Amino acid sequence: MTDYFSSEDTIDNGIKELKKDIIENVKMTIKNLNYSPDEEIYNLFNDLKSIEEYLNFLNIFIKDKNYIALVYMTGILPIKKIGFSSMNNFIELAMVDPSWMAKYIGFTDEEVQKLCEKEKWYNGYNLIDDENNRVSMYTPFSVINALDNKSIRNYWNKSSSFEYLSNYIHMNYDGLKNDTILLMEKGTIKIDVKTYHNDMTSFKWKDDVFTLLVHLDYLCYDEINKEVSIPNNEILEEFEIYTNSKDWSDLFRDFQLAKLVEEAHDEADKKTNNNEASLKYTIKLAYYAARINYTILDDVDSGKGYTDVILNPKRNCKDSAFIVELKYMNSSESGMNQIIERNYSSRLVYYKDNLLLVAINYDKESKNKKHTCTIKKYDKNKKFK
Prior knowledge:
single chain; alpha+beta; Arc Repressor Mutant, subunit A; 12 helices; elongated
């Protein structure tokens, strides 16, 4: 419409140009049309003779032709009736009464939901083109198979390269295990892709392994933010296959607890600074609802030091007791060693068969400013699990 109503033309001139173009287009459909742009435009559509000629044309073209089994015509308005129309062989399905055609008029909700499900499974590769625009890409092999088989599931063409790289992840090479868990929990990791040497052996640190996984399409690389992530459910399922073991289950458990504490810590930071006092407040805030079944104590003297937080089950509560050691700018492993070496468990002698030791650390100087957590079950034989 901007072609007709620019700032330089008046509205009247714009209407004249619009009428002229409409008439020219109608003349292309109705031959020998004698009509002037000076006439009112609505008269063009009241030209009964032209309408009748068009209907006769359709009737002659379609009716009683052996070589035509079905004619499907689309339009925005029903065919205009002129008296006793000869178009009695037409079935009109309009928006006011679409009948069996209803589901073919546009995309149904079910179809859109299936499209969204395909997006979750096969999308996620966000690339940057030469004009710095994001291009969202799907996995072509998987999409084709999903359409052919009419089933949304894992069609990933497994690579032996990933199995080879999983050995580095299992060995926790340069902290790969913890970062892999973060990725599987829909997190992102910043990496430097420039250090990778384009082979499968010269790995100096974990960024090289992640870069190779990007080239193998197991990870998506955000060129703007310099971050990697797991692109979709199909790839996530591949990671789940290779992390399905007891040691991985323990790491996932520790990660989940650290994540919950981190969320509570974010709330606590509004009231206190990032230090052990803040972490202690965080634990109390996170376990506020636990006061129904627990007595929460802090700075309890164990004889060799002070336990940061103890969660002592109340009478008739069969849940585990907790000893929690909090560290700031240190490590959760050092916190666990402190619990064991200083025999903090002596304060909970009645719960030694059902006692969990928990150490939590917050390091604000780390790349991702993440909490770390270590959990062990107390063993009276000093064999902590």
